[in-house]
Specification:
The chain is of the alpha/beta class. It has helices at residues 16-30, 41-49, 61-69, 102-111, 125-136, 140-146, 158-163, 174-178, 209-218, 222-230, and strands spanning 6-12, 33-39, 56-60, 79-84, 86-90, 115-117, 147-149, 169-173, 183-187, 196-201, 234-235.
């Protein structure tokens, strides 16, 4: 009988709850186990570019393609896993911002005392997108004075900043907001929404490429897709 393998996964934090539920199931079915390292996609992409070893990487679609071009992910190994929308959360029981229109949401952003976000540079995809949105809405300066940036990764979620009472509104990937005990109001208005595709690939320095491929296939099974959907993401 083959020895059990530990599959090292570098994954966007948006997949945190997905792996919490699927990892035990994968281990029961295969005997192998996941060792999941979570972080903002941009941070993980840099770590991979710098040569960090892993068996599976799950980052943004564009990031994964660039890693293939830069010789860090195996060409032909990319598989789209989940699509994520950016959402809005508030403390439990707090008034909910207006997400029915961009103008209504803008008014509520300007009225808020503080807003929790991912860092626009070096953070998650949602932080970079919201920086562009604030610029388009002409409120960059006002938002800079209100912004509370999470540290990134599972311990630095915007929802945790909201939970601690340090921000009136949290804006991040829906799946990351759902991971915290806050009220998730819903996705951003369509006109300022940004959907992020998260893509899995196998690093060229993977210690267990065959097992990595099996792990990625597992994430595309109907059972895994149902978990992905339940955790605030859209299966690819």
């Amino acid at each position: 009988m083959a020895a059990a393998v530990e599959i090292k996964i570098l994954s966007t934090t948006a997949m945190k709850m997905v792996f919490e539920e699927l990892a035990p199931r994968f281990e029961r079915e295969t005997g192998n186990r996941f060792s999941v390292n979570l972080g903002p996609s941009l941070v993980l992409e840099k770590r991979l570019l710098d040569g960090e070893a892993a068996d599976v990487a799950i980052v943004t679609g564009p990031g994964a393609k660039e890693l293939v071009e830069r010789g860090k992910l195996v060409a032909g190994s990319l598989v789209e896993v989940a699509r994520s929308l950016i959402g809005v959360a508030v403390p439990k029981g707090a008034p909910r911002p207006d997400l029915s229109s961009v103008d209504g949401f803008k008014r509520d952003l300007l009225a808020a005392k503080s807003i929790a976000l991912s860092k626009p540079v070096g953070g998650g995809a949602s932080g970079a997108h919201m920086a562009k949105v604030f610029e388009e809405l002409g409120i960059t300066e006002a938002m800079a004075a209100k912004a509370k940036y999470g540290a990134g990764g599972a311990a630095g979620l915007a929802g945790l900043v909201v939970l601690r009472g340090e921000a009136d509104i949290g804006i991040q990937q829906m799946a990351e907001l759902i991971a915290v005990d806050v009220d998730v109001v819903g996705p951003l208005p369509a006109d300022i929404q940004s959907a992020t595709m998260f893509t899995a690939g196998i690093p060229v320095n993977a210690a267990h490429p065959a097992e990595a491929r099996a792990a990625i296939t597992f994430l595309t099974t109907p059972a895994a897709k149902s978990v992905i959907k339940a955790k605030g993401l859209e299966p690819a």
